[in-house]
Amino acid sequence: MVGNTNAPADVDITRNAYNDIADVYAEFTKGHLAKQPHDRAMLAVFAELVQANGSGAVADIGCGEGRLTAHLHSLGLPAFGIDLSPAMIALARQQYPELSFAEGSMEQLALGDAGVRGLVAWYSFIHLPPERMPQVLAEFYRVLEVEGHALLAFFATDAPDAVEAFDHKVTRAYRWSPERLAALLRDAGFTVHTRMVREPDPGERFQQAYLLVSKLR
Ligand SMILES: C[S@@+](CC[C@H](N)C(=O)[O-])C[C@H]1O[C@@H](n2cnc3c(N)ncnc32)[C@H](O)[C@@H]1O
Asked: Strand 173-176 and strand 79-83: pairing?
């Protein structure tokens, strides 16, 4: 797959890195959600909020091999996945043939304005250089319906207002102070609904954070 020649170099690096480890990643994450009560709890709250006033499509942005898309579907949400890596998309289609997956970048989503009722970005923006995060959050805001909800999960730092690069196994990544990301989400127009931070499990290096936000009228 040849990348978009206008895209910054890091995009090709991230795409190629996930292409190379797609099978390993799928093996690594197999059964992971079943061991993660905090993850399931946040996804359940998100699903209930999305379903509260009718229904609508839910985009899993940076879906990887599709485990979250499938979980959202099991919660009754009409979820579909988008990912930068064609190898990840191929795996997702193979594992969940009943669901819809497409290649694409969160920096330029091929979705109409207000086209989705819900949006999940689960450790998928971690490789994005922080200076491009405001445009991505604007893109999330654009594609979400009014009264829609978005759920973001990411590696956290407790250094106040910090965003810090770290040596993620796949490629360079960033961890965010939840307050700093919450401020950017508010700047993009979102209302921050819930913040949760959990301490690292054995084998994890960092705190894990979840932000649940809404696009209010
Ligand atoms: C750490 S994995 C997480 C995958 C999935 N959300 C999960 O939790 O299993 C990061 C994923 O985000 C995707 N990704 C990274 N940058 C992206 C971008 N700009 N647009 C869309 N997907 C992206 C990668 O290809 C990879 O599949």
From this structure: unpaired
Pocket test for ligand 1, best of 33, 124, 172, 204 (most atoms within 8 A of CB): 124
Query: In degrees, to the nearest 5, what angle opens at C-alpha 196 toward C-alphas 124 and 200?
Result: 75
Our separate counts of H helices and E strands in the chain read 6, 9
| Helix orientation angle between 86-95 and 9-29, rounded to the nearest 10 degrees | 30
- Per-domain boundaries in the chain: 9-214
Would you state the pLDDT for residue 217?
87
Task: Please tell me the predicted confidence (pLDDT) of residue 2.
Answer: 45
Confirm if 66 and 81 have CB atoms less than 8 A apart. Answer: yes
Which amino acid is it at 21? I
Question: Which of 11, 42, 83, 139, when mutated, tests ligand 1's pocket best, judged by the most ligand atoms within 8 Å of its CB?
Answer: 83
Q: What is the mean pLDDT of each run of 10 residues along the chain (217 residues)?
A: 69 96 94 96 98 92 98 98 98 98 98 98 98 98 97 96 93 96 98 97 96 96
Q: How far apart are CA 212 and CA 193, in angstroms?
A: 5
Q: Which atom of ligand 1 is nearest to the CA of 121?
A: 6
Distance 14 CA to ligand 1 centre (A): 9
Check: CATH 3.40.50.150 for 9-214? yes
Contact present, 185 and 134 (Cβ < 8 Å): no
